[in-house]
């Protein structure tokens, strides 16, 4: 798998190429100068970008940027530029948009949708889609609320039952997709209807179960660490973790005899992350402090990113999304990976559903409905995960959720209607898919897809 967690490239043996030997004199072609002479056809192999040594300094970054653009490896660049433009526009229209209070509230509000989007990323990496995540989130929220409030079950047991319910849904849908062969679109579309009906059945005639506000799920969402040391401590820990992973990766690459990042490059990347992390911590501390929900969201992103990028399981997921037949011939258990991915997706939908229930302090007939499904899928796609499979990252969920949440927050401040919000969000999603399609076409032209 590539270093940035994108589509795995086909590994090949780099040999010296075909050796040319002079023809013996008795086999030299006859017939004069016009006689055809056999010519060995040589093909220029594409160079694996992981073996390219980037020139140090500013010129090296410029050259690397040009190489990525020409080969269609845009990564997170489009969504980062879009986020900057969105913040600049709304910040110029109303100064309260970039206030510490609004940004802090935004960081909490995106958690529920962002959690669901993380699971969607896993399914998209296979080149598939899950249309049931909205209903699953509502179902699991209803399971927790009914067990906790109506039946008085221990709160942690109720939470585990809700998460287990999400995993069971993924197991069922993954089985029909991977073993029976029903298309994922059809399986999850049926699930979207079926799980919504089950949620209504669990909620009963009242249709709404209000949370007490003192339950563990509500506390996970509403708790904010007011001490400034908390936000700054998380920033220090994040930067240190990133620096350690970069140094470890560089040492492993040198030990393997392949190019590694220069110390100056690592220092620059770490410094850029430190600026972003401490600026975010400073902004949060200007209001109330570090929201626990945001911290949990970041932990899920980091852990699942490690699962995708640093484990054999993650490499198998990317391989399956890049070339299913090649993955099967390589000995990968395709049904097992597919089922596990759908289980991860539904479990993350359950986590997101719990946070969304804590946000509105209830589980009702509208839980998991509305535009939640579209926003969750849009967040993953807008964040940079390819609809064609094999390329994406859990960080896509964070970036995409920030884009969608920023659009909604800015328009609410400006007093614009939901109709305008939907249209603009749809245009942003369309732009993300167009960029993804163009990037894939460029990669094919460059022999990289």
Automatic annotation (TrEMBL):
Keywords: Cell inner membrane, Cell membrane, Membrane, Sugar transport, Transmembrane, Transmembrane helix, Transport
Compartments where found: Cell membrane
Region (Disordered), start-end ranges: 1-36
Stretches that traverse the bilayer: 74-94, 106-126, 133-150, 156-177, 184-204, 224-245, 266-284, 290-308, 339-360, 419-439
Membrane topology category: Multi-pass membrane protein
Record InterPro entries: ABC_transp_permease
Compositional bias annotation for Basic and acidic residues: 1-24
One of the Pfam families matching this protein, by short name: BPD_transp_2
Main location: membrane
Domain of life: Bacteria
Function per UniProt: Part of the binding-protein-dependent transport system for D-xylose. Probably responsible for the translocation of the substrate across the membrane.
Protein name: Xylose transport system permease protein XylH
């Amino acid at each position: 798998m590539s270093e940035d967690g994108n589509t795995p490239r086909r590994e090949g043996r780099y040999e010296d190429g075909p050796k040319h030997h002079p023809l013996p004199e008795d086999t030299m072609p006859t017939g004069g100068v016009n006689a055809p002479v056999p010519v060995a056809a040589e093909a220029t192999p594409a160079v694996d970008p992981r073996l390219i040594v980037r020139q140090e300094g500013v010129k090296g970054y410029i050259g690397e940027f040009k190489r990525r653009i020409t080969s269609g490896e845009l990564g997170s660049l489009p969504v980062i530029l879009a986020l900057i433009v969105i913040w600049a526009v709304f910040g110029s229209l109303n100064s309260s948009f970039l206030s510490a209070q609004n940004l802090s509230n935004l960081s909490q509000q995106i958690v529920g949708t962002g959690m669901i989007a993380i699971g969607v990323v896993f399914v998209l990496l296979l080149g598939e889609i899950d249309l049931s995540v909205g209903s699953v989130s509502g179902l699991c929220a209803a399971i927790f609320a009914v067990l906790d409030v109506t039946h008085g079950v221990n709160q942690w047991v109720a939470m585990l039952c809700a998460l287990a319910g999400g995993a069971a849904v993924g197991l069922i849908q993954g089985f029909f997709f991977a073993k029976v062969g029903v298309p994922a679109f059809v399986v999850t579309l049926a699930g979207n209807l079926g799980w919504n009906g089950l949620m209504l059945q669990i909620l009963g005639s009242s249709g709404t179960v209000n949370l007490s506000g003192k339950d563990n799920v509500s506390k996970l969402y509403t708790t904010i660490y007011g001490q400034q040391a908390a936000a700054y401590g998380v920033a220090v820990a994040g930067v240190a973790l990133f620096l350690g992973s970069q140094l470890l990766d560089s040492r492993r690459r040198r030990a393997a005899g392949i190019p590694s990042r220069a110390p100056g490059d690592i220092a620059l990347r770490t410094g850029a992350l430190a600026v972003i992390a401490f600026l975010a911590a400073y902004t949060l501390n200007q209001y109330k402090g570090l929201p626990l929900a945001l911290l949990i969201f970041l932990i899920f992103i980091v852990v699942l990113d490690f699962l995708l990028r640093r484990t054999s399981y993650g490499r198998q997921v990317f391989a399956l999304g890049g070339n299913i037949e090649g993955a099967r011939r390589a000995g990968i258990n395709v049904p097992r990976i597919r089922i596990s991915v759908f289980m991860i997706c539904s479990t993350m939908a359950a986590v997101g559903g719990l946070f969304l229930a804590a946000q509105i302090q209830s589980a009702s007939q509208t839980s998991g409905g509305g535009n939640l499904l579209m926003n969750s899928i849009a967040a993953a796609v807008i964040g940079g995960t390819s609809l064609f499979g094999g390329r994406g990252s859990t960080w896509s969920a964070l970036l995409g959720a920030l884009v969608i949440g920023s659009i909604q927050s800015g328009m609410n401040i400006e007093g614009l209607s939901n109709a305008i919000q939907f249209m603009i969000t749809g245009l942003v999603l369309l732009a993300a898919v167009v960029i993804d399609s163009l990037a894939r076409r460029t990669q094919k032209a460059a022999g990289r897809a």
